[in-house]
Amino acid sequence: MKLRFAPSPTGYIHVGNCRTLLINWLFAKANRGQFLLRLDDTDYTRSEEKYETALLEDMAWLGLDFDAYEKQSNRMDRYHSVAEALKKSGRLYPCYETPEELEVKRKQKAAQGLPPLYDRSALKLTDAQKTAYELEGRKPHWRFLMNDDIIEWNDLIRGSIKFEGKHLGDPVLIREDGIPLYTLASVVDDMDMGITHILRGEDHLSNTAVQVQIWKAIGLSHDITFGHLSLLQGMGGEQLSKRLGTQSIRDIRAQGILPMAVNSLLGKIGTSDPVDIFPNLQSLVESFDISKFSKATPKFSGEALEQLNTKLIHALSFDDVKKHIQFPEMTEDFWEGVQANLTRLDDIKTWWDVCRGDVHTFSTEEDHTFIETALSLLPEGPWKENPWTTWVDVLKEKTGRKGKELFMPLRRALTGQDHGPELKTILHLMGPARARERIKQALSK
User: Model-level pTM?
Assistant: First the structure.
């Protein structure tokens, strides 16, 4: 079994195509097959090296490896060789229409209520007409001649699929500049690389039908099984786009989300299984079953991702969290103290500043006497146990304060803020010396 993920490096990978990547990877691993990463980079005008680099970084962050890595830009000679064979067999024919002329034809067909299929007028051109076009400076693009055969397959997601060749237009396989398009390059690659299963979005359904005929024309000798996944949408029904950077993995990484939160959500969304956290990829592989994927449109929720991330963080051990963050000052005691209050790993830095950083504390004039009393009643260190409850109970008794009137002045004197994490935890992580220093600072202003 051999699967592939074949993105074009024209933008940052977003959660939609990341889901396709993950499902292919899980399918290969669950069946002890091979997984190939292939870069469809024949579009030289839009492909950029930075997107290739970002893809490899995102995959490494997610923990998704590959058995081989190919780039279409290195295989141009092979595509041209196949194209020449198709020309000789009569399945690839030259067309000389300009983009403007093709647009006029499309509009005319639309006005007549007809599908925008190419009318094959180029097949009627004489050699003299072709020569005349070329003398004008026109260079041909090349179309694949579809036949009327029935094209059908049993789709892993959608069941029985059937197309009639006569209802599919002749696709352009070679541009005017001689560059082969995705439709040809992908077909040649899948054949040469022995791809056995292709899992991709439902927007490729008609494209798959076209490619089936191209495979037959170039001599595919093995069977390929297809599965067309429903496209992931945003909660408002919007399409996801890597060009727009919609929920890119790059941005998700920067937000402090854990990779297994992403894998857990994208590996189960759109299936009959409940979405829950998986501690590692192996456990996700063991639960994978392609038959559980539905034809219904799955919706991506940033809130659901946040919830999974929070749940995952709360389950992490100190040794686990050290693998995900570069924060040498953090101790196991500190991690255990703040863990339950984190929603993202980046929150650790905020907690560190509050508890052990250099912050400016203050006290209002009306709270000055109360804070002086609080300082005098703060137990001396070292603390064998967290003194918070005892300290606050005595303060209540001595001052008669309670609720916000008691806690807000203490928060300002200890953290310099009007809101934040639980004061009991903050006091414990500060320790006696820093807590006393913070309160004295608040009283000095």
Answer: 0.88
